[in-house]
Amino acid sequence: GESVGLHLPTLSVQEGDNSIINCAYSNSASDYFIWYKQESGKGPQFIIDIRSNMDKRQGQRVTVLLNKTVKHLSLQIAATQPGDSAVYFCAENMGGGADGLTFGKGTHLIIQP
Amino acid sequence: DGGITQSPKYLFRKEGQNVTLSCEQNLNHDAMYWYRQDPGQGLRLIYYSQIVNDFQKGDIAEGYSVSREKKESFPLTVTSAQKNPTAFYLCASSIPAGLSGNTIYFGEGSWLTVV
Predict the structure, then answer these.
(1) How many CB atoms lie within 10 A of CB A1?
(2) Which residues numbered 49-88 in A keep a CB inside 8 Å of some CB on B?
(3) Fewer CB in a 10 Å sphere around the end CB: N or C, chain A?
């Protein structure tokens, strides 16, 4: 089974509000995590990543938090905009595995006007 | 521009046909990957290649074949043995595989439909 999952398949937020998308992982050996954004009919785009020796990393309007104690990853998007509507995937790399990443199913973020 | 180019964007396959999806990258990445995505699902790994002339099966390799004759190219053939090929196919690449922390970058995908 998948070792990476998401708590909610769909998240609806008001434009301008902050969004939090959650992800649970089960493999304690995972040491690198990535969030991707996928718009309809397009390939996933890299948003932000974090290594297991960190618990927080910030980008432009996005923050990733990593809680290794409970194996939880979250993506926070500040002041959401219509262009943020997409499916968001978390992915993990299990200790340098050469076969790439393991992906969750994704959360569909819907921005309400 | 640097990136990963997949073609065609849309492809229709008749029953019993083999079809090949193209993937080219000019990022000078060593590792390349093929993923399959079904509606409302996550990505599943078909094949991956760490270096030229070498490739490995992923989780769902049955009915697919690949080649890696050049660093820049990693074509995927969907054979007639793949019983349910209709899906969105994503090619990806990364700097040397086997090292943690290597971000995987994706192409724009190819839609394959069986008619």
Answers:
(1) 4
(2) 49, 51
(3) N
Contact A62, A77 (CB under 8 A): yes
Query: Residues B10-53: pLDDT tens digits?
Result: 999 888 899 999 999 999 999 999 999 988 778 999 999 989 99
DSSP A92-106: EE-SS-TT--EE---
CA atoms of A56 and A58, how far apart (whole Å):
7
Please tell me which residue of chain B has the smallest CA distance to A87.
B40
Interchain contact B11–A (C-beta under 8 A): no
Residue-wise over A72-92: b if at least 16 C-beta within 10 A, else e? ebbbebeebeeebbbbbbbbb
Strand ranges for chain B from DSSP E: 4-7, 10-13, 19-25, 31-37, 43-51, 54-57, 64-66, 76-78, 87-94, 105-106, 110-114
How many Å apart are CA A49 and CA A59, to the nearest integer?
9
pLDDT in tens, B74-109: 999 999 888 899 999 999 998 865 555 678 899 999
d(CA B9, CA B4): 13
- The greatest distance separating any two alpha carbons of chain A, rounded to the nearest whole angstrom, comes to 43
Q: CB within 8 A of B47, min separation 6: which ones?
A: B33, B34, B55, B56, B57, B58, B61, B64, B66, B76
Query: Contact B7/B54 with Cβ under 8 angstroms?
Result: no
> Which chain B residues have a beta carbon less than 8 Å from that of A53?
none
Of B45, B90, B111, Cβ closest to residue A99 = B45
